[in-house]
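Form 7-S
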Amino acid sequence: MASAAAAGAPPGPAASKSRKSVTGTRRTVAALFLLPALVLLGALVVYPIGYSIVRSFYNASGDGFAGVDNYKALFTDDGIRTALKNNVVWVVFAPTVSTALGLMFAVLTERVRWGTAFKLVVFMPMAISMLAAGIIFRLVYDQDPDKGVANAVWVGVHDTFAPSSAFPKAHPGRESPLEPDQGGFITRATVHTGQPVALPLVGVAPDQLPGDTKKAVAARPEPGRITGTTWQDFTRGKGVGRLGAPDPSEPGYAGMRIEAVEDGTVVASTKAAADGTFTLSAKADGARLRLPASNFKEPYNGVDWLGPSLVTPAIIGSYVWMWAGFAMVLIAAGLAGVPRELLEAARVDGANEWQVFRRITVPLLAPVLAVVMVTLMINVLKVFDLVYIIAPGSSQDDANVLALELYRKGFAESQPGIASAIAVFLLLLVIPVMLFNIRRLRREVRR
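Output:
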C-alpha cells in the first residue's frame, strides 16, 4: 500500500530537477548544445560592445582617460552633426518610400496576370550587393548625359520642349561689325535697305553646326529690303581666306535668329537660311541688327545629381531601388493571408476600391507594415556602402552619415575614441526600435 501511495504521489524536488523538456532533452544537455553559440555570441557581440563602450571614454592614443569629451564631440563636430542630420533624413524617408512602393506593388500586382514576373523583376536588385549597386548608380547619376542614364533621360525630355542652341560658343572675330549686347551681339551701326549686311562670327566647331548647313554665300542687295549673311568667318590654313567676306569653304549659320532693333523695340525678325543669308522687310531700315542671346544658349547638361544639394536624395533613391522589392515580397505574403470575404463584403456594402484599400486592406496589413518599417529603419541607420561609393569626394561631406563618419574617424583620421562613441550612439539609436519590435512580437504571441 505504501509503495502504491508513493507511486501515486506528485514528484518531489529531486524529480523536477531531472525533468525533461518538451522535446525530451534534459536541461543540462540543452545547455551544452547552446554553449558554443553562447561563446560565439559573447565573442562576436557582447565583447565588442563592451570594448567599444570602454574605448569611447579614452583619447585617440588610448592611454589617457577622456571622460565624456568624445560624446561631446558628437554634438559639436560639424561633420558628425551633418551625419546625424542626414541620418534623420534617411530614417524618415527611405523606409517610408520603400514601404509605400512595396505596398503599392503588392496590391496592384494582384490584379494582373503577369504579377509574378513583375515581382521577380522588382525583387532582383536585392540579389545585388551594396557595393555593386553603388557602382551602378554612380554611373547612372553621372553628370555627362552621354554616360549617365538619369541625365540622358532628363536632357532628352528637356530638349524636346526647350532645344538648346547650335551656336553656344560663337562670338565676333577681329574687325567685326558686332559688339556685345545682353548676352547676344548687335551691330555698331544702323542698316539701310539696298545695302547687304555682313554678320561674321567665329568659334563654332564644324561638327556642332546644324545638319542642314550649306556653304555661305554673299547676300545680294534688294530694293526696299535688308539683306545679309551670317556665317563662320574662318578658313583653315595660314594666310587663306578673306576677313569679313564669305569664302567658298566657310559654312553659313543656318537657323541663326536676327532681330532689327530700333529704340529698344524689335521691329522685324527672321532666321538665316541654310547658306546663312537672311532678308528683312523695310521696317528694319535705320535699325540695328541684333543676334539675340537665345542663339548662344549653352546646351542643357542635365541635373547635378551628385552635387551638394541633391546627393542625399539621389542616394536614397538608389536604396529604394534595392529595398522596395524586399518590402513588396513581405507585404505580398501578408496580403495573401487577408480574408477575401472581408474585402468582398466591403464591396457589396458599396465601398469603392480606395475605401477598401484604406479602411480594410491597410489596417489588416498593419502588423506586416510595422515589420517592414522597423527592419528598414534599423537597416538605414547602418547604411555605409552606398554613401561611400556613390557620393564623390567633392560632396561626400554633404552626404555623410553616422556609419561613414565612424569609418572616417576610426581609420582615416585616427580618432578611435570618437569612432567608438559614434558606435555606442548608433547602438542607443537602434535599441528603442528593437524594444518596439520585441513588444510588438509579444503582443502578436498573446493573440
